Amino acid sequence: MLTRFDWWLILIVILLLALDLTVLTSISPQTVPSQLLFAGLAGVVFLVIARTDYRLWKSLALPLYILSLLLLLLTLGFGQTARGASRWLALGPLQFQPSEMVKPLLVLCFAAWLETPRWRLKSLFLLTAAAFLPIWLIFRQPDLGSSLVLIVAWASLIFAAGLPARIIIVI
Q: Which range (126-130, 133-137, 164-168) has the least confidence?
């Protein structure tokens, strides 16, 4: 199974991690162990996702979308506020930023929904509303950067699915 991986991509990720740890060591050496822990967890998550059949992820698109919305709503209601922004949720001693988890989940959901082209006005409106609801919730935190990343991801996916660029620009 590992022979089908893009080893160049994995090498680039490892080199970026090494650069990250080098810079982090010079800035804040006490955070290096936690960074290594999270990198290890990310590696495990990567392997699990890579070994899972893509049809399973496609069948989970709607539940993952609902989970994304719930996490974003929890952030608005119970998020840790710092510098006027409520972006973090506390889970015991750990804190995490749901908008960072939501980005790949939403890309997965949008890709699953766009797999079969159905460019009727109603379906395009529903997809646009489904995309902009979580984008609006992230923008309300406020997190303009993550909102813009999702807008670009959404536009890229509907362009890749075959919607003409002139319609995307109008939307």
A: 164-168
